[in-house]
Amino acid sequence: MSDEAPPPGIDARIPNPARMYNYFLGGKDNFAVDREAAERVLKVAPEAPALARRNRAFLRRAVRYLVAEAGIRQFVDIGTGLPTEGSVHEVAHELDPGVRVAYVDNDPVVLAHSRALLSGTASTTVTVQGDVRRPEEIMANPELRSLIDLSAPVAILLVAVLHFLPDDDKPAELVARLRESVAPGSYLVLSHVTDEERARDAREGAAVYRQASSGVTLRSRERIRELFDGFRLIEPGLVPLDDWRPDDENPLARQARRHLPTWFLCGVGHAS
Fold first, then answer.
1. What is the C-alpha separation between 178 and 226, in angstroms, rounded?
2. Local structure of residue 7 (DSSP, 8 states)
3. Fewer C-beta neighbours within 10 Å, C or N terminus of the chain?
4. Is the dihedral angle over the CA atoms 169, 35, 79, 129 positive or is it negative?
5. Residue 93 to residue 251: CA distance in whole angstroms
């Protein structure tokens, strides 16, 4: 991405959380202002890149679980962010090439990159513009509905999304409205930042985002759990990223990962 010539409609003077996240993941789809903001986060939260990678690893494990064990064949990934290795359709198609994935975002850079990346997968993927604050519009989108059958179970993905909504947006109500739009048997995959551990550092890192296009709202475990109202949490419940069905069950390996603070909680819920 060129710092000198940003795409039309993109303000390269304001940090963008999706592009900062891309920087944490080692991507190149970011501007100088995003890198500068990300570096300010790193001063107080040097673990941010590792947590970003582990958040993506949680997403991949959740997708594999939903396809291989829960039998889900449809995904709606809201707030998908800039494409990166191990995207939802790539993980799902390793198990079943027929899995259908709708990517939803309100960022024009994300939309452009996603559509370019997915140009050869039109039969199983679609990218649509949408905002989680308007869930009914997302689910009524004609392009999404051309691929996703809402009369059958679907997995809604809200991975590292809802902490960018302030309390005034009533995120729990938004999730409830998404739940009401899908069939029984659907799932919710969610991760969210928290200040459960090293609260001062977490809050200083979140403060950087106040100067970005979207701020960060840290929520407690109890308030994140409320986002799953109407869903039955799948074991192991609401846990730190590394503890949700880790690929490596070796106790020594799991202990080695615990040096990271619990700044993310994650879970998968089932709507019966």
1. 14
2. P
3. C
4. positive
5. 30
Let me know: does 153 contact 180? Beta carbons within 8 Å: no
Q: What is the CATH number of the domain that holds 203?
A: 3.40.50.150
**Six-digit token string for 124:** 């199983």
Domain count, the chain: 1
Q: Are strands 125-129 and 100-105 parallel, antiparallel or unpaired?
A: parallel
Provide the residue-wise pLDDT of the chain in tens; the chain has 272 residues. 545 555 666 677 888 888 888 898 888 888 899 999 999 999 988 988 999 999 999 999 999 999 999 999 999 999 998 767 779 999 999 999 999 999 999 888 788 878 877 777 778 999 999 999 999 999 999 999 999 999 999 999 999 999 999 999 999 999 999 999 999 999 999 999 999 888 898 899 888 888 888 889 999 999 999 999 999 999 999 999 999 999 865 555 566 566 788 999 999 999 98
Q: Is residue 32 part of a domain?
A: yes
Instruction: Pull the structure tokens for residue 59.
Output: 């997403």
